[in-house]
Structures are given as C-alpha cells and as structure tokens.
C-alpha cells in the first residue's frame, strides 16, 4: 500500500455533531485513528455509529465540531478523501450478474484506473481474497464467506489508506470469519488503518487496538479491549439461571460478594473475584440455580455495564 502523506493521524474529530431535524445523533464526539491502527466502534442501535462513519466516509456532512480525514477537510475535499478510502458495507451490494473478476474490475474503472491497471489490480486482489480459482464464477454462486472476501477485495482496489468496515463478518461461519480476520491483520501490517463496527466481541478483541463505546450519541468509554474489561467488568463472572424469577432473592443472598450484579433476560450476571464464595453462599441459602457457570469478564460485560443493554441476544 502507498504511504499516506502528512502526519500519522489519519482521522481526527473534535466535538463532532450530527443532527437529523430535531434529533442530535452525534453529540460532541472526539475520535482519532493513527496509521496502521484499528479502532472498534461499539454501541447499540441509535448510538450514532452509522452517522459517525458516514461523516468520516464523506457521504454525510457534519453539523458541528472539527473533522479531518487524511489531513483534509471533508467539507471542501470530499471527493479527494473518498478516492483514498475503502468502504466495506454491512450489505454486500455486489452485482450478482457479474463474475467476481468483473465486480472488482468495474470498481477499479469507476476510480478512473486504466484498463490495464484495473486488470492487474483485479488479479492481485483476487489472489489476496483467495478467490483466484473462482474469479470467473458469477457472484450468486459464491458462498457467504467468499462474497465478503470479494467485497473487501473490491474496497481495496484504490489502495486505500483507511478502510471502513461495517459488520464485516455478520452471518459467516467460524472458518470464514477467521480467514477474513487474517486478511485484515495483513492489511494492518501494511499500514492500512481500520475503523470497525461489529456485534461480535471476539472479532473486536481480535482486530482492534482500541475500542470506543458510544451510547446516545456520546462516547461513554474508550481504551484497549483489555483495559476496558479491567476497568468496567470484573476478573470473573458467575452466570446464574433461575426459572420463575427470584432475581431479588439472589441479589440479597449475594450482597457483599460482587462488585455489581446485572439481570439480563433469564440470567443473573454476578461480577466477582470470588466465584467459589458465590456458590458457597447459594448453597448456604438453599438456592439451587437451574444452570450456572463461571467465565472471564469480557467486552460484552463492559458494554452491558456502560449502556445498560446487551450487545447480543
């Protein structure tokens, strides 16, 4: 990938705002992304993630604050910025009547590449996406994982400095997800910066150097995945299922043994560094959960703690 001119800060936002009529979707967000860095944006529906990514992608103007992408102002240099961005949308948008090769080639021509350069770049990207042997297959015959790899390859046709990915592996099987993760890690090593939204916390932990959690248009936390988990979750979580309610009885029984307790649907999540004492207390009180397990704290727990909502499920 070609080097990006200027400093190593590819995206810088300060006090960024976005309105839709009377609704303020983004409320004074600060954000930055460095060269070769991957930033994960987490948030429930309506948190402002899509609005933020559309502003960074120069397809929607900001209504306040300061934004620089690749050192340029989107208000005056939108086309120049878009020419150096890659975008992987949540929904593929591939032309199903064309082959894999034709989808990439046509995209390259849209960027003004010569026929020769578009053909050469298409061949490179088919190899990158592990699709050389399916290059002349029509898109509708490709598996879901192949299609997502093709969309990523298409987004790289212009050798972008910054790649914006919206739910890159939603609906894919574990093996297909691992292949895409491997491709994205390779891009990071080549100096490409990533902005990723995902509902898969293992994906965020796998790909992202930093995470920014949004809720109701504001940043509520940011940091590395491990730092956020240490700060807002607990070393271990006891998950308890008890049919017929009884959540308050459990809370009373476990008073003093947990940093906090969350109730999610039919589960009680007990955040503690003493899981053995939690189970001993339940036995002493004669409380017998339907099921129980102990697991490590995760970004799912951070998200639930900060927003009051589960990211998945």
Automatic annotation (TrEMBL):
It is found in: Cell membrane. Keywords: Antibiotic resistance, ATP-binding, Nucleotide-binding, Transport. It comes from Streptomyces globisporus. It is a peripheral membrane protein. This is Efflux ABC transporter, ATP-binding protein. Gene3D superfamilies: P-loop containing nucleotide triphosphate hydrolases (3.40.50.300). The keyword Cell cycle does not apply. Residues 11-241 form the ABC transporter domain. Belongs to the ABC transporter superfamily. InterPro entries: AAA+_ATPase, ABC_transporter-like_ATP-bd, ABC_transporter-like_CS, ABC_transporter_ATP-binding, P-loop_NTPase.
